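SAMPLE LOG
Freezer: B-3
Tube label: C17
Construct: single chain, 300 aa
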Amino acid sequence: MKQLIITGDDFGYSRTVSDAILHAHREGFLTNASLMPCGFDFDYAVALAKQTPSLSIGVHLCLLQGRAVLPHADIPALTDADGNFHNNPLTAGVRFFLVPGIQRQIELELRAQMAKFLATGLRPTHLNTHMHLHAHPVVFPIIAQLGREQGIRFLRVPRENLLSHLLIDRRFLASKLARGLFFWALCIGLDRKIWRAGLRAPDAIHGLLQSGHVDEMYLTRLLPQVGDGVTEIYFHPGADDDPILRRWQPDYNHAAETAALLSPRVKQLLHQLGIQLTGFEGAISSPEKASDASAGEAPR
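STRUCTURE (predicted):
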């Protein structure tokens, strides 16, 4: 069985992101949204989510490219004086290793974000992080603990097969090579860590190497390659004239991703290929992958 989860990340980041995600769910084929507690339009997204119970909602925790929930005085190593997170993921990743006491500040902020999400009354079906920082060795134990505490089952492994991907789309080759190699190294052993934490990951994900450019052309080439099991494709829909997105994600083509999620051509192709759209709560994990990840160890 081919099950496909279509996720819109950054729900609540801005008004145009939230509107695009809702439109893609109602008129297109988006099944899930990852709600950002530190988003600039969080309350608006929460209201939309409560009006749309068919939209599966997860938690999208953030330590980059946004504004923290806690004040700067509580987490001075994570934010500037205005409460904004740092913008560069490589710099932030190094700081997470080197700055004394920063791990405690990370935990405080992520717990505050989770509490803000839970205060809405929404039930999270999955957990992930902005820029995939949960794959960072300092951040992962905190994320895993939060997932266990809330009974969240699914966590994304940010890794794609680089060679297979380049057969589909060779645009932005240099950045894809750098990103692919970086996350390949970062995710070594992550499947087993997720399994041992009592969590699960989709069998495959797409969107990492194509981030910001998951357009119709890419989807029509990708979907025939989707295999059996649970696959997640994640998107960043929105509007290209949004000032928040132009500041934090200037290289993304948000409008093209929104259009792809509404494409009749893609919708017809999904039907022709017999791909079943699902939410995380309806996904069935592959027994083969679970066996490989566990390597004889039971989840704890």
